[in-house]
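FAQ
Q: What does a multi-component entry look like?
A: The components come first, one per line:
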Amino acid sequence: MVRETRLSVDQLIYPLFISEKVDDQLEVPSMPGVSQLSVRRVVDEAKAAADLGIPALLLFGIPKEKDERASQAYAPDGVTQRAVAAIKKAVPHLTVIADVCLCEYMSHGHCGVITKVDGRYQIENDASVELLVRTAISLAEAGADIVAPSDMMDGRVGAIRSGLDSHALTETAVMSYASKYSSAFYGPFRDAAESAPQFGDRSSYQMDPANALEALREVATDIEEGAELLIVKPGIAYLDILWRVKERFELPTAVYNVSGEYAMVKAAAQQGWLEEKRTVLELMTAFRRAGADLIITYWSKDLAGWLR
Ligand code: PBG
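Then the predicted structure of the entire assembly, as tokens:
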């Protein structure tokens, strides 16, 4: 009765991977219980999630063909666009959030356009933003309720907002990965999304884990540019950032309980070293206590059962 922090299924966002290369489903070895799904299977999974009371999905697509322009990210018949449309048709009341990034669609696995200048690879911020805007518009046209840019290029929130508005997509919200750190905890995700960079790393566009004030500046910029919801990512090692972001900006704030956090607990639980349910409920409660309104987690379906 006097408990201060409440956890419920309507605070959960369930991430799903849709692959153009699988017929049915393919388990991700580093994320037990998580699979890449075909478009047909993702619709079943969306229905199952909705039946459990989960209000929203976050979708990642894995195309058959990758290139250096991420063409499949903004192809009208791309795998993610088809999945979004199929889910919205089958379960219209489910909120569909489409991740907007280029890494899964780029042959080199980076989140933007890469050029080589004086023998050195470099990310082209503004050329990348153009492609991200096209991606966001095509996902919104396919029916996404919310687009969530996770690339961390500068200026992309404003560009996406005006791109959406000029295509009469004023109702589509922008949920920004406003503070996203360059983290080792994304390792298993890169297996799941087949998006590991082929050379270099993401430290020129994602944030240094040592910086907290920079995170607040990144968030302030995204809000000025039109972000309506925020994401702090990863979760466990960044609860201080989550707290500061929620306290200072008071916008709806989600925490991303990322793949490495999931894999770590799953591995320990499989060894019998941790009790999975208790550990997960404690982590989720900590996210809520630290200010998260919403939690993006691969445990969404388990939690829906545990919280019943
Ligand atoms: C795409 C993206 C990543 C994650 C979400 N969107 C990976 C990355 O930045 O390398 C990570 C999610 C997770 O680890 O669960 N840019």
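Q: Is there any commentary attached?
A: Sometimes. For this entry: The pocket of PBG is lined by residues 99, 101, 103, 111, 150, 186, 189-190, 202, 258-259 (CB under 6 Å).
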